[in-house]
Specification:
Two copies of one chain form a homodimer.
Chain A lengths: L17 E5 L4 E3 L1 H4 L2 E7 L2 E6 L5 E7 L4 E2 L8 E6 L4 E7 H10 L1 H27 L2 H16 L5 E3 L4 H8 L3 H13 L3 E3 L4 E4 L2 H4 L3 H10 L1
Antiparallel strand pairs in A: 1-8, 2-7, 3-6, 3-8, 4-5, 4-7, 9-11, 10-11
Helix pairs in contact in A: 2-3, 4-6, 5-6
Chain A binds a DNA duplex (30 and 30 nucleotides) through helix 6.
DNA sequence: CGCGGCATTGACTCATTTCAAAGGTGGTGG
DNA sequence: CCACCACCTTTGAAATGAGTCAATGCCGCG
């Protein structure tokens, strides 16, 4: 995934940045704060959780280094924004100031649009994931995505988050995440080097429904 | 829901608009076209469907009059954009032209940002809906939302789309939509004046999980 | 009047959740 | 350096919500 900063266009906004360091699980901003600022992850990772009245939570966005968050005004639910790892560093910018800067500098405005449109694309993909995929496909494409995003070696990932967080992100239960990983391992699609270290063996098979796989084979 | 046009800010872009009229089910743009243009629904309604290899489809966005679509580059799946009703009118704008205009006119740039941020908010809400809600809540909040969006009388909606489309939007099966409506009717939360005409009787109860309702009652 | 698409209903199946328990693992303090 | 604790992970068995398949009803339109 292309870094969202790429050096120059937003370099000048760093003049307005306030950076802070967080430890795992620490809250990064409250709903009130989030309305006034935009955020960028510098290192580590951040989860944006929707909290529901019955105590359920869903991770609406996982944010990796160089990506932004905080554009949306959440409607209809409470939320929490927390660091996923130790030493997560986040830069934040005053929203009004950036808006003003965007007014005067088309480059900045363009960059903000690009970031926003990217966010829309990612959210739509996630919508399809939640709406159409079974547990197998969810976990499979999560693994492939993670490997792609945070590993040089596209076949070897060290998952930076717990099963619980994965579950909340994919909207399935922790147990199902665990069982699915075991099943993928037993079928030889992945190897579990350790609980967090996954080696992808059959990348293509991870991305399709197993019924599709059977159908595909019988095509030949 | 606030109209996204509100008269002035984007009035000047209408100089670049091409409007067209569609009949129910007609395709509005192909993936190729969508990359070059932005769209606004003038009247009627539009569905943005993700199409998956196994024939499943999901409605990623329902677009009502005055709302925009076409910002995202879809990644990883094919899609179709179709009119939901007869006489759906859609205006489209050349993307590059609008980008240039945004560069020179901060008002336009601001407006585009506003539209994009709204889209992000809506998508996040839908993410929570798909991830956290059961069929009951999905249909319930869909009804409340529709009533709010397209009716003066917030308690009476004429659904502009079929059960099938509702199902694809909420990521449940047609049968479940139907069964759920029947159940809501039998429990007195709604009335089905006709298949498409719904009267909301107990708005609040539609928005909570029934187990929550029981818990809430026993609190007293 | 009859056709075709939409809508409802029933019976059965199945994926996933839930509840429960037992292994692991890493970190902290004695 | 070890022991203990909290938390993460796995696994099993039972319960369940929603999907699938199939049949029937409904309604508008030619």
């Amino acid at each position: 995934m292309a870094s969202e900063q790429r050096g120059n266009p937003l370099a000048r906004i760093d003049a307005f940045a306030v950076t802070a360091r967080y430890r795992r699980g620490q809250e990064i901003c409250t709903p009130a704060k989030a309305a006034e600022r935009w955020y960028r992850v510098v290192s580590g990772a951040v989860r944006w959780c929707a909290l529901r009245a019955d105590g359920r939570r869903q991770i609406v966005d996982l944010v990796w280094p160089d990506n932004f968050f905080g554009f949306s005004e959440s409607v209809g639910y409470d939320f929490a924004v927390e660091a996923l790892m130790h030493d997560t560093v986040v830069a934040s910018y005053p929203r009004r100031r950036l808006e003003l800067l965007a007014d005067s500098d088309p480059q900045v405005a363009r960059e903000i649009r690009r970031i926003a449109f990217n966010a829309i694309s990612r959210l739509q993909s996630q919508l399809v994931l939640l709406g159409q995929m079974n547990a197998q496909e969810k976990v499979g494409s999560f693994l492939v995505d993670m490997a792609h995003r945070l590993s040089d070696d596209a076949d070897n990932v060290v998952l930076p988050i717990s099963r619980h967080d994965i579950a909340d992100y994919l909207a399935i239960s922790v147990e199902t995440v665990s069982r699915t990983l075991t099943s993928l391992k037993e079928r030889g699609l992945i190897k579990l080097v350790s609980a967090r270290n996954v080696r992808i063996v059959d990348r293509d098979a991870l991305l399709v429904r197993d019924s599709m796989l059977a159908a595909h084979l019988s095509d030949n």
